[in-house]
Amino acid sequence: MGKLNISFYIxxxxxxxxxxxxxxxxxxxxxxxxxxxxxxxxxxxFTPFCLLAAWIPDADIFFNRGNPEWSLLYHRGISTSFFxxxxxxxxxxxxxxxxxxxxxxxxxxxxxxGLICVHIWLDLATSYGTQLxxxxxxxxxxxxxxFIIDPIFxxxxxxxxxxxxxxxxxxxxxxxxxxxxIFAYPVATMAIGSTLEALVKKQYERSGFxxxxxxxxxxxxxxxxxxxxxxxGEEYTxxxxxxxxxxxxxxxxxxxxxxxxxxEKLGRQDSIFTTWEWFARYPVQETLQTGQGTTILFRxxxxxxxxxxxxxxxxxxxxxxxxxxxELDENGDLVSWELNRTTRRFVRQAME
Length: 352
Description:
Blueprint: H1 22-36, H2 46-55, H3 68-74, H4 82-99, H5 105-124, H6 151-166, H7 171-206, E1 213-218, E2 225-232, E3 235-242, E4 253-257, H8 260-269, H9 272-279, E5 283-289, E6 294-300, H10 308-314, E7 323-328, E8 334-341, E9 344-349
Antiparallel strand pairs: 1-2, 2-3, 3-4, 4-5, 5-6, 6-7, 7-8, 8-9
């Protein structure tokens, strides 16, 4: 077997799996424009400027060039950090000053940075993780308050926009309350999740269960549903809790904690495995024997679900997002790997 080299990537249409949905980000820009318009009476193209500022941290998606490891390392990286956000605000304000010459530079910069921080807040509220301190730290922070797509939250934001349009005389006030809602809703869902987590944990403790790890994270239609991930020894368990029927039982998924030594060994052959282990929050693995060798599936339970809608989706032939598949030969050497990002698949093969 020769040295491993990248031979090709297969790129299929990709979803926005790593981001809070773009509709919510753009909607926050609309609210920002409505709330602060009166402070920029002579500004030109003010709404487009606010929309761009609210969306701009996601511009990193244009730089991965189909490289899955780049995406794991740098998506939700410096562009969604406070440092990166400040640099982008400086640049945006400078460009905007050329368009709207009567607008004070630092005033535009402050607004741009504020809207960028709203974007960062929305991404931080999801369980994907955001590198707030990049480039000084690659730690991923998360509030575990919102699912990637939250229709209840998004509809709430859009409702404030519509009311502000219909009540033009009070547009500023309504939009301001809409921005408050953007911060208050995730805080409220966190409070619901924390309360429910403590309640369910007490029920488990009364039943004699103890865990090395035990966490509630958002699932589809949070705050109605919460994903429960626990680890006892080397075994993870994933299930679901209904906020209104906390005692209702749902299916369970179990998996063995991913072998660090194996990932380290594979990482010496290809850095994607080291990167994936850094990225994964609840890493599990499954080993399958084939006629040509061994197939190992590495999954992150953060992206698995037993929710009826999501589980039916992935039971139709799609693997869970960010599943890393390693093909090993009979000697245990890496032959190829494949990273699945929902509808985007990357393949790396060895050159003979």
